[in-house]
Amino acid sequence: MADSTAKLTMGAQDVDLSVRSGTLGPDVVDIGALYKKTGTFTYDPGFTSTASCESKITFIDGDEGVLLHRGYPIDQLAEQGDFLEVCYLLLYGELPTATQKQDFDYRVTRHTMVHEQMSRFFTGFRRDAHPMAVMCGCVGALSAFYHDSTDITDPHQRMVASMRMVAKMPTLAAMAYKYHIGQPFVYPKNDLDYASNFLHMCFAVPCEEYEPNPVLSRAMDRIFILHADHEQNASTSTVRLAGSSGANPFACIAAGIACLWGPAHGGANEAALNMLSEIGSVERIPEFVARAKDKDDPFRLMGFGHRVYKNYDPRAKIMQKTTHEVLGELGIKDDPLLDVAMELERIALTDDYFIEKKLYPNIDFYSGITLKALGFPTTMFTVLFALARTVGWIAQWSEMIEDPNQKIGRPRQLYTGSPQRDYVPMDKR
Ligand code: SDX
C-alpha cells in the first residue's frame, strides 16, 4: 500500500513514485515502474540503498544496534530461549507453546539422520579438503537423495525440506569435520538436545563414552541463535535469488553456503582468528592497525565493520560474554588470542579512523576464540555459521516462495562496453 509519493524530475518529465512505510525502519520508494515510465534504470552496486524484498522475519537497526527476530530482541532470545525455539519462531512467525515446541523438537530430532549413501558421497573428497567445500557439495547433493521434498509448489514438501535442512545440517557438518580429521562418523542420538547432539557427533569416538558438558552445549546453542538469521545479507540474498528461479531448496541452501564462505561475510570468523594468530601479541597490534588504515594496503581488520551496523553489533556483545563463559568453564585463564582481541578492540574503539568509519567488532570477532576453545579447527568456523544460518536461509526462501508478487530476480546493468561493431576476419586484425 502506497503511503505517500515521491516526485522524480528527469528533464522535462515529472514521475510520481509511490513511497511505502514498513512497521519499522526506512521508507522505500517503489521504483518497479521506473523503467517503463522513464526508460531509465536505478544504479546501486552492492545494494547499499536498495530494499530487495518485503519481509516480516528479521529487522536490524544499524545505528541503534538493534536486531529483532519476528519482533523479539536477539539478547532476550539468546538469554531466555533455545535454538530450536528460535527456529520455530523464524519458520512459523510466533514463539511456540510448550506442546508446539515439544512436537517441533520431536520432528527435528527424527530427521537428523542422513541417507546412508551420503557417507559414501564424502569419500570422494580429499581428507584435507576445506570443510566448506565439502558442505557446498554435500548440501547441494541432498536434492539427489530427497526427491520427495523438491516440489517447491507444494507447501507440505516445502515444510518437509525445511525440517530436513534444520535437522540434517548438524549431522552433515559433523560428518565434514570427522572426515576432515580422519575419524569415523558418529550417528545422531535422539536422547540429546540439538547442540549436545552436534557436539556429540563432532567429539565422540567409538572407544569411549562422550558426556556433553551442559555449559558448553548451552554456549553452542547460543552461538547458533546468534547466527540464525540477519535480514537480506549476501548469502540470504543469494538463496532468495537462486530460489526465485524455482530451484529446489537444497540447491538454494548450497548456493547460500558458497556465498557465506567469503572472508568479507561468513568466512570472517575463520579470517579473524587467523588474523589474531598472525598479530600474535599485544605489542604488534599498532602495526596491524596502521595497515588496516593504509589505503594502499588491502589488509582489513577481520571481524570489524559491517554494512548495516554503524554501532556495536548486538550479537558481538553476547558473543563476548559467551567467550568468557566457555573459557571459564574450560579453565582457560589467559588465552593470548583473547588478550590480543580485547586490546585490539580497545585500541580500535578509541582510534579516530575506526570512529570516523564507524567500525565496531561484529559477530565474527569473538566467535572464533570461542569455537577454538570448544575444540573446533578454524576450518570449521564458517561451517558452524552455515549450520546456524540454514534456518534463516530456509525461512527467507519460504517467505519468498509464498510471496504472491514473487518473480524471478533479474537485475539490469549500466553498459559501458563497446558499441556495436562488425566482425574482423583473422587476416585483417
Ligand atoms: C558478516 O550483512 C550481514 O548481515 C553479514 C553478517 C550476517 O550475519 O549475515 O552480519 C555476517 O558478514 C559480518 C561481517 C564480517 N566481515 C568482516 O569482518 C570482514 C572485515 N569487514 C569488512 O570487509 C567490511 O567492513 C564489510 C565487508 C563487513 C562491510 O563492508 P562495506 O559496508 O561495504 O563497507 P566498506 O567496505 O565500504 O567500508 C567502508 C570504509 C572503507 O573505507 P573508505 O573506502 O570509505 O575510505 O571502511 C573501511 C573501508 O576501507 N573498512 C575497514 C574495515 N571495514 C571497512 N577498514 C579496516 N578494517 C575493516 N575491517
Automatic annotation (TrEMBL):
Belongs to the citrate synthase family. The keyword Acyltransferase applies. Transmembrane segments: none annotated. It comes from Pseudohoeflea coraliihabitans. Keywords: Acyltransferase, Transferase. InterPro entries: Citrate_synthase (IPR002020), Citrate_synthase_AS (IPR019810), Citrate_synthase_bac-typ (IPR024176), Citrate_synthase_typ-I (IPR010953). It catalyses: oxaloacetate + acetyl-CoA + H2O = citrate + CoA + H(+). NCBIfam families: cit_synth_I, PRK05614.1. This is Citrate synthase. Pfam families: Citrate_synt (PF00285). GO terms for molecular function: citrate synthase activity.
